[in-house]
Amino acid sequence: MKYRFVRERENYEDYASGRVLLGMPGNPAFPVRLASEVFQRCAAIHRAQGRTGPFRLYDPCCGAAYHLTVIGYLHLEQVRRIVGSDIDPNVLDLAEQNLAMLSPVGLGRRMVQLTAMRDAFGKRSHADALASAERLRDRLRAWPAGQYAQVRLFLADATDPAALGRALEGEQIDIVFTDVPYGWHSEWQTVENPDAGREMPRTVHGTGTVWLMLESLRGVLAERTVVAVAADKAQEVVHAAYQRLQRLKVGKRQVVILRPLAHGGRTAHSRAGRV
Ligand SMILES: C[S@@+](CC[C@H](N)C(=O)[O-])C[C@H]1O[C@@H](n2cnc3c(N)ncnc32)[C@H](O)[C@@H]1O
């Protein structure tokens, strides 16, 4: 994939998972450069239609909200609100801690922890993490107080339209950016059987889990919403009620950017023009 926005590889050590921000244990962190590129592509699609932001972002499989928090930092001025949900209550605790670090108070709490660890163990890694946290704090301080992104988290199965409908009533969402379970380290789950990998109903297009998520999102998205889904290449990111705008292939991942079609769409699989 050719990066259009983040053309140069930058040093993202301040955002490394497990340093200041928290990652999901045993789960590879979403690449920072890719998160920034995808967010900027989504924002560019809005801008091409005259919507300049700042934007309201939602992730229905937010995990630790690591990539949402990274985007919140890298694009402070472009993000007004971040909403995340997940089926797993344990990860929402991590998500809460991460998203709290988008304000000086939450970041301050993490700095207290890192200082205590540095003093107790004298490890270089804690001192480095503290230095990163100070740089993140400087980023926040450069931004007017009171204009930090608002955050909200809730528990929901992303494939359950009723749950999303209830929880997102009244929410305006400009960008959905989700990193769905890949089956490498995290599996799709259901409320009925949260511990098992989900046997998904097959759809005409194939495996179907992402389809179910897109189907349940339809009820809560506006026509203008831009939806980016990161998945492994085996999962089909298709739904007849969405228009595919872009598909990026990065290593084992694909990222598909779509938008809901007006009136639910008529074609079996619309792949109309790149934006
Ligand atoms: C790859 S992880 C997301 C990691 C996240 N991008 C981050 O940066 O922290 C996928 C997440 O999907 C969640 N998940 C699995 N099945 C789900 C479902 N049916 N509804 C909502 N979330 C689900 C898992 O609990 C896991 O947290």
What is the string of SSEs from the N terminus onward?
HEHEHHHEHEHEEE
Helix content: 25-40%
What is the number of beta strands?
Answer: 7
Based on CA atoms alone, the radius of gyration comes out at: 19 Å
Hetero groups in this structure are: S-adenosylmethionine
The average pLDDT score comes to: 89
- Number of separate helices: 7
Determine the N-to-C terminus distance. Answer: 16 Å
Biggest pleated sheet: 7 strands, mixed
The structure class reads: alpha/beta
Low-confidence stretches: 193-206, 266-275
- Output the strand order for the largest sheet: 3-2-1-4-5-7-6
Shape: globular
Strand content range: 15-25%
SSE topology sketch:
Elements: H1 32-47, E1 55-59, H2 66-74, E2 79-86, H3 89-100, H4 104-121, H5 124-141, E3 150-155, H6 161-167, E4 175-179, H7 209-218, E5 226-232, E6 242-250, E7 253-260
Parallel strand pairs: 1-2, 1-4, 2-3, 4-5
Antiparallel strand pairs: 5-7, 6-7
Helix pairs in contact: 1-2, 3-4, 4-5, 6-7
The structure holds S-adenosylmethionine.
Please explain how this structure is put together.
This protein is α/β, with parallel strands linked by helices. It is built from 7 helices and 7 strands, in the order αβαβαααβαβαβββ. The protein has helices at residues 32-47, 66-74, 89-100, 104-121, 124-141, 161-167, 209-218; strands at residues 55-59, 79-86, 150-155, 175-179, 226-232, 242-250, 253-260. A 7-stranded mixed β-sheet has the order 3-2-1-4-5-7-6, with helices on one face. α7 (209-218) links the parallel β4 (175-179) and β5. α1 (32-47) crosses α2, α3 crosses α4 (104-121) and α6 (161-167) crosses α7. The longest helix has 18 residues, at 104-121. The radius of gyration is 19 Å and the shape is globular. The relative contact order is 0.14. Bound molecules: S-adenosylmethionine.
